[in-house]
Amino acid sequence: MRYAYAITSALLVGGASAALVLQNPAGAQTAQNEPGAIQASSPRAGAPMSFADMVAKLQPAVVNISTTQRVQVQTNPFAGTPFGGLFGGQQGGRPVTRQAESLGSGFIISADGYVVTNNHVISAGQRGAVVESIKVTLSDRREYTAKLIGRDPESDLAVLKIEGANLPFVKFGDSNQSRVGDWVVAIGNPFGLGGSVTAGIISALHRVTGQGGPLDRFIQTDASINRGNSGGPMFDLNGNVIGINSQILSPTGGNVGIGFAIPATEAKPIIDTLMKGDKVERGYLGVGIQPLTDDLAKSFGVPKGKGELISRVEPGEAAAKAGIKQGDIIMKVDGKEVTPDTTLSYLAGALRPGSRVPIELIRDGKRMTVQITVGTRPPVEQLAGFDPDADEGAPSEEDAQQSATASLGLSVAALTPQIARSIGVDPDMKGVVVVGVDPSSDAAQKQLRRGDVIVSINRTPVATPAEVARIVSEAKQNGDGQVLLYVTRRGGVGGYFAVDLTD
């Protein structure tokens, strides 16, 4: 379960918008929540209705999702220090490979086995971990090995596929019709307790949690949501999926009556795109945004609760090309007002890349409108920047590619202009940046470190992790025991390193 303000995964060990149309010819299986299929019990006076009949109909479509992961664990607490060789332990100080598991929820959305869940439910739980398999378990204890069809880390959504027929499934509803105070029901697997049902009300709509980004917009509920509920459905009383349980706000990791679900109207276009095998693309302006506090609004002479302040403009990006400047206050995007509930990031992300839209802004007290050609939002790891002194943190989307360079003893990522500036090298430099070093590798012995930029391998320029993996694989196939790296560091200092390869 991810946490707003302090996000963690649901691991139990530490370790754009075409509608999906389901045709129902005569005799075909229907959705578990087909209109008319669910009849509510009559409530007692002054009491809520029983959810029993509804839950009995919906529960078969809600599944348990678990992953098996392989992770390297360092057995030598002194690894990477001058004492590492003295206290190597039984494994000689080298990491050992161990198994880990994760657990979450999901739900089936088609009779042939498409399953929706959160991306963090099926992702590696810590850096260096590799997801080996994903298992889906139905309420009747049938188990299936799932195939990952697509994932979108920014929205925290993923689509799986299991091989089955005539499976129970549910359909999405229109979360835009939901109102604060409406009853909702959540079904999932909190703490590994399969098929648990909780009920509550919608506490807020369009809730911004402060994480930033184009998808920071949730349904808030007081229905109990805990670890393991991630990826499970939130139903309205008609049995429609109006949200996907995703996060909780909690100082302890347990439910405190504040949970968040991704609205169905936000999730469904993304899920439709992933089901087609396409990549989700979002609009991008290329600006840094600062909330317009009351005192700033007063200083700039603008209404409170309207607009956002531009703190930075990325050179060469859409905003810079349109003439937007630092200190501008964006008031409207394509005719839609920028407010605390409808943020600039949200509005920009919803734009179609390549489209041309008007942006209304205030500069030096004067209102003006500029036309902007919307760019394409870069991957989340590029936008996050890079701190060579920071902990490695959660794994990125490129971990699968990075694992291919394990024989080099390094994990790498593409070098972007933003990362280049943060580590003190030329923003126009081409190469890959080192994001992790195996302390037991020859690369570590040669003093390669996080934040180094690999410009070439065996005198061949590299710009992506895939190119690094290819050259290293070719070297191993040729029987070469080492490769020659050209590495650049902060300030432009460069040099060659001959690095031994491991099996």
From TrEMBL:
Biased composition (Acidic residues): 388-400
Subcellular location: Periplasm
Signal peptide span: 1-18
Enzyme class, first EC level, given as a word: hydrolase
TM segment ranges: none
Principal subcellular localisation of the protein: periplasm
Protein's name according to its UniProt entry: Probable periplasmic serine endoprotease DegP-like
Active site: 120 (charge relay system), 156 (charge relay system), 230 (charge relay system)
GO biological process, one term: proteolysis
GO molecular function, one term: serine-type endopeptidase activity
EC number: 3.4.21.107
Family: Belongs to the peptidase S1C family.
Protein keywords: Hydrolase, Periplasm, Protease, Repeat, Serine protease, Signal, Stress response
Domain PDZ: from-to ranges: 274-352, 397-491
Catalytic activity: Acts on substrates that are at least partially unfolded. The cleavage site P1 residue is normally between a pair of hydrophobic residues, such as Val-|-Val
Superkingdom of source: Bacteria
